[in-house]
Design goal:
This protein is of the alpha/beta class and about 325 residues long. The chain has two domains: about 120 residues, NAD(P)-binding Rossmann-like Domain (Rossmann fold), CATH 3.40.50; about 180 residues, 3-Layer(aba) Sandwich (Rossmann fold). About 40% of the residues lie in helices and about 15% in strands. The chain has 13 helices and twelve strands. A seven-stranded parallel sheet has the order 8-7-6-9-10-11-12, sandwiched between helices. A five-stranded parallel sheet has the order 2-1-3-4-5, with helices on both faces. The radius of gyration is 21 Å and the shape is globular. The site of 2-keto-D-gluconic acid (8YV) has 10 residues, from loops.
Length: about 325
């Protein structure tokens, strides 16, 4: 978009970003924008690593150890657009002297709202009801029509009580009078937990046994891969619902589809999937499953804030200051 100037750092931006963010990037850097918003191929990522000083990727870019092994490597900073960075091999980046940053905080509230939306939609049959009306099948109100499950006052089990888990806990307790239980191997300070009114449980299994709704808020790491598998799904109450807007890898999607088919649990609200954008076909046909296209942070306000936060991280790095959100 702009002619290269020798004094300006080259930053490759892998997807279209809100206009205010692209404008900011173009003002401060020799920003190479992705005008047609196509997902980058492996060779485009490798080319960016060879030819740019900074890379601004998203969840759709797989920056594996193999990709990060390119020669010659010119990129010095990867400013990820998003808080989750499991698509980046951070250890490999670090090994190559590349700094990695993310965009926490700015998306916490919208992502928590999205989890609550999934919980309400699946329990109160929101997606199913919408399809019913749009298809012309609705014959009118009747006392026994499309009865769902009450959310208010129920027990919410959180797997992970980081920033987003805490924001969900706050909404659930203060908005819906829910009892909140949780497990987190790295829990926040006791005072924070007490203020939230959340009750710790010593294992994920204990949370699953007790909760009416289970919502996942862990990062995707080798330890959390398929954390929710067939064995753990079987621990859940038959009337319970599983909510996931963290990362698809945390749930064994095949086991979840089987559990839903067999009636092991009552339903699921999913915003993320193991093989995005592919969804396990059986799930597509189930009325008791709400499926959203990874919308957790998808508001105008947050997507701008995420971009500006990534821009801050790039700016800091290139002036030689510590980037605020360094993760590797
Ligand atoms: C983004 C997210 O939509 O921040 C995250 O981890 O999952 C979402 O907010 C996505 O990651 C953008 O790259």
């Amino acid at each position: 978009m702009s002619a290269a100037r020798p004094d300006r750092r080259v930053v490759v931006v892998t997807r279209r970003l809100p206009a205010a963010v692209e404008e900011g990037l173009a003002r401060e850097f020799d920003a190479r924008l992705n005008a047609d918003d196509h997902p980058f191929s492996k060779s485009e990522l490798e080319n960016a690593l060879r030819t740019a000083d900074g890379l601004l990727p998203t969840v759709t870019d797989r920056l594996t150890a193999q990709v990060l092994a390119v020669e010659p490597l010119r990129v010095r900073v990867i400013a990820n657009y998003g808080v989750g960075f499991n698509h980046i091999d951070a250890a490999a980046a670090k090994g190559r002297g590349v700094v990695v940053t993310n965009t926490p905080d700015v998306l916490t509230d919208d992502t928590a709202d999205d989890a609550i939306m999934l919980m309400l939609m699946v329990a109160r049959r929101g997606g199913e009801g919408e399809r019913h009306v749009r298809s012309g099948a609705w014959t009118g109100w009747r006392p026994t029509h499309m009865l769902g499950t009450r959310v208010s006052g129920k027990t919410l089990g959180l797997v992970g009580l980081g920033r987003i888990g805490r924001a969900v806990a706050h909404r659930a307790r203060h908005g819906f009078g829910m009892r909140v239980i949780f497990h987190d191997p790295y829990p926040p300070p006791a005072a924070v937990v007490a203020e939230l009114g959340a009750e710790p449980r010593s294992s994920v299994d204990d949370v699953l046994r007790e909760a009416d709704f289970v919502s996942l808020h862990s990062p995707a790491t080798p330890e959390t891969r398929h954390l929710i598998d067939a064995r753990r799904l079987a621990l859940m109450k038959r009337g319970a619902f599983l909510i996931n807007n963290a990362r698809g890898d945390i749930v064994d999607e095949t086991a979840l589809a089987a559990a839903l088919t067999q009636g092991t649990i009552a339903g699921a609200g999913l915003d993320v999937f193991e093989r995005e954008p592919a969804v396990t076909p059986d799930l597509l046909a189930m009325e008791n499953v709400v499926l959203l296209p990874h919308l957790g942070s998808a508001t105008e306000e947050t997507r701008v804030a995420m971009g500006l936060r990534a821009l801050d991280n790039l700016r800091a790095f290139f002036v030689g200051a510590p980037p605020r959100d360094r993760v590797a």
